[in-house]
Design brief:
Length: 238
């Protein structure tokens, strides 16, 4: 479903572009509504469009089999989906699935590649973001191996809260187990522990972040490391 481009853009990457580049870029975008659970691209599928989330967010999932899936990155209003195009590739190595419904700016892949060729500012910004995304991917691999489920769940809830722009999250244990690559029982115990510490409130799939500062303290250091890298490369002057 398409709708007019909002007058106030809330995607940080697009907001960061020089005005002339931003105006030209937005002229080739359309705003669409993304639905929870919608699969944008399957592994090895061709990337037909790039997406710049506004108030939605997209999970990038490594899919070994139907029963072996793990979220390895998350894209919200801080980033974009379609990064292989920057490397001259039009295939996705991961499944891209809408995790949070909402609006996104969409651009055809060929048009996006044309903007990359024409604008050094766009290319430079997105290469920095590509590095941040690569860091997130590698960090998740190490985090999954070394860190406890409770700390990983805290980190994941913080990442989701950042991209949902809300303290209220609707996430079932089954969905959380798939995203974190653990058994449902492990998610139940971790959620109960965070609730017992007064950090979240959980009831039938509805999670409320009650104490964000405490949740950051309970999370592994990966959350803060990701935020610091993003700030250093994308928010501070180059």
């Amino acid at each position: 479903m398409q709708s007019p481009i909002p007058s106030t853009i809330t995607n940080y990457l697009i907001d960061s572009l020089p005005r002339q580049d931003r105006v030209s870029f937005l002229a080739d975008c359309e705003t669409i509504d993304l639905v929870f659970g919608e699969v944008i691209t399957e592994p090895c599928g061709r990337i037909l469009h790039v997406f710049f989330p506004l108030d939605c967010f997209i999970s990038l999932i490594a899919n070994l089999s139907e029963s072996e899936q793990l979220e390895v990155a998350m894209v919200g209003s801080e980033g974009m989906y379609g990064m292989p195009l920057i490397l001259g590739l039009d295939k996705s190595p991961l499944r891209a699935m809408v995790q949070g419904a909402g609006q996104a700016l969409r651009m055809p892949a060929a048009v996006f590649c044309h903007h990359l060729e024409q604008s050094p500012a766009i290319e430079a910004l997105l290469k920095r973001y590509l590095f941040v995304l690569m860091h997130q991917l590698t960090r998740v691999a190490a985090c999954t191996h070394f860190h406890q489920v409770e700390a990983r769940l805290a980190r994941w809830l913080l990442m989701t809260q950042d991209r949902a722009h809300s303290d209220q999250l609707h996430l079932t244990h089954e969905f959380l187990a798939m995203m974190l690559g653990v058994r449902r029982a492990g998610i139940t115990l971790a959620a109960m522990a965070l609730q017992a510490r007064g950090l979240i409130h959980y009831h039938r799939g509805d999670i409320t972040v009650v104490n964000r500062a405490g949740l950051i303290e309970a999370s592994c250091g990966c959350y803060v490391a990701d935020r610091e890298l993003y700030t250093r490369l994308l928010e501070e002057p180059a």
